[in-house]
C-alpha cells in the first residue's frame, strides 16, 4: 500500500509510512551533502598529505560562515515560497526567485572580496600555523573565487525543493557529489593539482549542477520560472526571507565560533596533527548527524499538520517514531566509532600518528552520541509545532551556554584531551536540558487531552 500524496494524508495515514515517505528524500540529500564534504578530505588525505588535511580543517569556519549566509537566504526563501504558493500567490513566489539570485550575488560578492583581502589573517585566527597556512590558503582562494556559484546554487536548489520538485533538488545534489568525486580524482591524481585540485573539483561540480537548476527555471512549464520583471529587489520579500533565515544563520555562526575555539585549542595543546584529526572526526560524525537531520525534516510536516489539527496522539506518536530512528542511527554511529574507528579513518589517511590521534578523538567525541540524536529531534520537534523560541533555545544553548564555556575552561586544565572531552560534556548537559523540556511539554499535552475529554 502506497502512501497517499494528498496533504490530508498527514492526518490519516499510518505514522510509520508517513515518516519513511517524507524522510527518505531528505536522508538521501543530506547523506549526499555529507559525502560531498567527505570526498575532499579523502582525496586530499591520500593525494596531498596529512598536513593538507589539517589545512582543510582550518577552513571549516569559512564553510560555516558560507553556510550561515546560504541558510540566511536559502532557508528563508524556501519557507516564503512554500507560504506564497499555499496562498495561491504565484506572482510573489516568482518574485522571490529573482530576489534569491540578486541577494546571493550581492552577499556572495561581498563575502568573496572581504575574505580575499584579509585571507591570511583570517586563517591565522582560525588556527593556521606556518605549516598549514599554505594549504589552507591555496584551497580557500579557489573556493572563494567560486563562492558566488556556491551561493546561487544552494539558494536556487532550496527554491526548487520548496516549489514542488524535491526529487529534482535531490538529483542535483547527487549529481554534484558524483561529479565532485570524478573531478577530484582527475585533478589531484591525474593532473597533480594538489589541494587546489580538490577545490576546483568542488566548484566545477557545483557549477554544472547549477546549470541544470537554471535550465529548470528557464523552462516555462516549471511551476515558478524566470520571467521579466522579477529581478528587482522587493523590500518586503527581502526582509521576510532574512527574518525567517535568521535562526539557522545564527546557529551556523555559533558553529563557526565553536570550530575556531576547537582549532585554536588543539593548535595550542596538540599541534597541527590534532587539528587534522579533528577534521577527520568532524567529517565522520557529520555523516550520522545528516541522516538524523533527514529524519527531522521528514517529521516536521507530519508533526506540524497534526498539531494544527489538535490530533495530539499522532503528534506524540511521530515524535516517538522519530526519536527511535534518530537514536538508532546515533547508536549505530556510536558502536561503529567505538569498536571500529580505524577502518573509517583509513579512508582519509594512512599516517599512523594521525590515525592514532583521530581514533582517540572519535571515541571521545561520540562517547554520548545517542544523546545527541535525542536532543536534535527534540529541538526540531519544538520548531515543527511552532515553538520557535524553544527550538532556538535548545539549538543555541548547546553551543553558546555549554560547549563554548567547556572549550574555554577544560583545555586549560586537561590540555589537548580537554578540547576533545568538551564536546561530549556539552552533549550530556544539552540532552538533560532537552529531556526536561520535552517531559514538561508532553505533560502539557496530557492536560490538554484531559481538558478536552
From TrEMBL:
GO terms for cellular component: plasma membrane. Pfam families: MatE (PF01554). Keywords: Antibiotic resistance, Cell membrane, Membrane, Transmembrane, Transmembrane helix, Transport. It is found in: Cell membrane. GO terms for molecular function: antiporter activity; xenobiotic transmembrane transporter activity. The chain crosses the membrane at residues 20-39, 51-76, 96-119, 171-191, 197-218, 238-262, 274-297, 318-341, 361-382, 391-411, 417-440. The keyword Zinc does not apply. The keyword Transport applies. It is a multi-pass membrane protein. One of its GO terms (biological process) is response to antibiotic. It comes from the Bacteria. InterPro entries: MATE_fam (IPR002528), MATE_MepA-like (IPR045070), MATE_MepA_subfamily (IPR051327), MdtK-like (IPR048279). Belongs to the multi antimicrobial extrusion (MATE) (TC 2.A.66.1) family. MepA subfamily. This is Multidrug export protein MepA.
Amino acid at each position: 500500500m502506497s502512501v497517499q500524496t494528498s496533504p490530508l494524508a498527514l492526518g490519516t495515514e499510518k505514522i510509520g509510512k508517513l515518516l519513511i515517505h517524507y524522510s527518505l528524500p531528505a536522508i538521501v540529500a543530506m547523506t549526499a551533502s555529507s559525502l560531498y564534504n567527505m570526498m575532499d578530505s579523502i582525496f586530499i588525505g591520500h593525494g596531498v598529505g596529512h598536513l593538507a588535511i589539517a589545512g582543510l580543517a582550518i577552513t571549516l569556519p569559512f564553510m560555516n560562515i558560507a553556510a550561515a549566509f546560504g541558510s540566511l537566504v536559502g532557508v528563508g526563501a524556501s519557507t516564503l515560497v512554500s507560504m506564497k504558493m499555499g496562498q495561491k500567490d504565484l506572482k510573489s513566489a516568482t518574485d522571490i526567485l529573482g530576489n534569491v539570485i540578486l541577494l546571493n550575488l550581492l552577499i556572495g560578492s561581498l563575502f568573496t572580496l572581504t575574505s580575499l583581502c584579509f585571507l591570511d589573517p583570517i586563517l591565522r585566527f582560525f588556527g593556521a600555523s606556518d605549516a598549514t597556512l599554505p594549504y589552507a590558503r591555496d584551497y580557500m582562494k579557489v573556493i572563494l573565487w567560486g563562492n558566488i556559484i556556491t551561493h546561487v546554487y544552494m539558494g536556487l536548489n532550496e527554491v526548487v525543493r520548496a516549489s514542488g520538485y524535491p526529487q529534482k533538488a535531490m538529483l542535483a545534489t547527487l549529481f554534484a557529489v558524483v561529479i565532485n568525486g570524478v573531478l577530484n580524482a582527475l585533478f589531484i591524481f591525474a593532473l597533480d593539482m594538489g589541494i587546489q585540485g580538490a577545490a576546483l573539483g568542488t566548484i566545477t561540480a557545483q557549477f554544472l549542477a547549477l546549470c541544470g537548476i537554471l535550465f529548470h527555471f528557464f523552462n516555462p512549464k516549471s511551476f515558478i520560472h524566470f520571467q521579466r520583471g522579477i529581478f528587482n529587489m522587493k523590500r518586503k520579500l527581502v526582509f521576510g526571507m532574512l527574518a525567517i533565515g535568521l535562526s539557522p544563520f545564527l546557529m551556523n555562526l555559533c558553529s563557526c565560533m565553536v570550530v575556531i575555539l576547537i582549532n585554536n585549542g588543539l593548535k595550542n595543546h596538540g599541534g597541527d596533527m590534532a587539528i587534522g584529526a579533528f577534521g577527520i572526526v568532524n567529517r565522520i560524525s557529520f555523516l550520522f548527524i545528516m541522516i538524523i537531520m533527514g529524519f527531522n525534516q521528514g517529521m516536521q510536516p507530519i508533526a506540524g499538520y497534526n498539531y494544527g489539527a489538535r490530533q495530539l496522539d499522532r503528534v506524540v506518536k511521530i515524535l516517538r517514531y522519530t526519536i527511535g530512528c534518530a537514536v538508532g542511527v546515533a547508536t549505530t554511529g556510536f558502536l561503529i566509532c567505538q569498536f571500529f574507528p580505524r577502518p573509517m579513518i583509513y579512508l582519509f589517511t594512512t599516517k599512523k600518528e594521525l590515525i592514532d590521534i583521530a581514533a582517540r578523538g572519535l571515541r571521545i567525541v561520540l562517547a554520548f552520541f545517542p544523546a545527541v540524536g535525542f536532543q536534535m529531534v527534540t529541538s526540531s520537534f519544538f520548531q515543527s509545532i511552532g515553538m520557535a523560541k524553544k527550538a532556538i533555545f535548545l539549538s543555541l544553548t548547546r553551543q553558546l551556554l555549554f560547549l563554548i564555556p567547556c572549550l574555554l575552561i577544560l583545555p586549560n586544565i586537561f590540555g589537548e584531551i580537554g578540547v576533545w572531552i568538551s564536546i561530549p560534556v556539552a552533549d550530556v548537559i544539552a540532552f538533560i536540558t532537552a529531556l526536561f523540556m520535552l517531559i514538561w511539554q508532553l505533560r502539557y499535552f496530557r492536560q490538554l487531552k484531559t481538558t478536552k475529554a
